[in-house]
Amino acid sequence: MTQHPPPRHPQRIGNELDLPALNDGPSPILSVDRALRVLACLADFDTDGEPLGVIAARLGEDKASVHRSLNALKYRFFATQDAQTGKYSLGPAALGIADIFITRNGMRPMLHRALLTICTEIDETAHAAIPEGRFVRYIDKVEPDRDMRVSSYIGARYPMRNTALGRAMLSVDCNTPEELLRVTGDENAELWPRISEARARGYAVEHEENEPGITCVAVPVIYAGRTVAAVSVSAPSSRMVGKLDTIGLSIRDALANELTDGFTMPEPSLSSPRR
């Protein structure tokens, strides 16, 4: 029996996902391979999508071939096209496949148990999110029983650079400012120091950058060497003063008790005081 090396986890080159392959040889069916690369490219776009020319240029393919792939993806709802602008974006079928994967590998119930523990202990809203191109998407949340709490909804999508959830993921997946720029497309000089701080502490922070009056703390979850999710606590900033380290440790403790085989957290490079 032929022995194949284990598949690589997706890496990034420029703004496109470099999809894992079974070996270094050519794909058995190039048209299918092209469609999969187009699908990965669509995951990097915001909800407005991009036109055919941009997609073809990013993939280094001719427009006619990419157009055929997009038509095939549209037929099965893996891609959608805006009738007015002609731009293409990720379709609902792709999200459905992702949801099945998250559920079957046990990640969703595992994260939900952690959210319940975090919300009970801290009495603030706890979220779980997954990476989606340059964005994060909420897949679960648990809310406290109190009048004033963070308003959010499952399925919401936000840029990685503006959220603690996204910064937690970037702290694992980006080791240099150049990698961070390639992944986020953000030239803000203040972003890299925040990612470095997140790596040092073991949790990321976002203070009123995504939503006025709200502060968020998040911890990444790793599988096969890459970030597959992150868990956060979001609350009115007035209730987070002086508590960031305690909350970061609480999230890590809850995850440590729930993470199953293969799922891990990065170890902080800078020790934080225990509660």
From TrEMBL:
SUPFAM superfamilies assigned to the protein according to its UniProt record, in alphabetical order: GAF domain-like, Winged helix' DNA-binding domain
Chain ranges of the HTH iclR-type domain: 29-92
Keywords on record: DNA-binding, Transcription, Transcription regulation
Gene Ontology terms describing biological process: negative regulation of DNA-templated transcription
Organism domain of life: Bacteria
A Pfam match: IclR_C
InterPro entries reported in the protein's UniProt record: GAF-like_dom_sf (IPR029016), HTH_MetabolicPath_Reg (IPR050707), Tscrpt_reg_IclR_C (IPR014757), Tscrpt_reg_IclR_N (IPR005471), WH-like_DNA-bd_sf (IPR036388), WH_DNA-bd_sf (IPR036390)
Domain named IclR-ED: residues: 93-265
One annotated GO molecular function: DNA-binding transcription factor activity
Annotated protein name in UniProt: IclR family transcriptional regulator
